[in-house]
Amino acid sequence: EDGGDAAPEEECQAEFKPVVQLDEVETKSGEEDEDSLVDLKCKLYRFDGDNNEWKERGLGLIKLLQHKENKKVRLLMRQEKTLKIRANHIVMPGTKLQEHSGSDKAWVWSTVDFSEGEQRIELFAVRFGTVES
Question: How many H-runs (helices) and E-runs (strands) does the chain carry?
């Protein structure tokens, strides 16, 4: 039999109260005083000189941000989903952006980066999904 004698299904009336009450906290991204000039999805690589190879740094949005007052432009790249900073540096006058290995979707540049909390000279490469990016 199909269990025709079973009681009709009852709707659950359970209520769960939070164990801890949290207050909403305003968080700052550090981008409040800047205007976004460009933001594009890309994959970022860092050159590892010790092993002589490119290592993936992250996938996410790369932004060029201009400070509203001093007009300095910085490059900021955050990892998709986690928003961890993967590149963070001022774009200095004279920075050379070069095509990488003949690919029209990848570019290379060298700079002093501050994404790990300390200044380090890094060689970066960025690859976009399309040529139009």
Answer: 0, 7
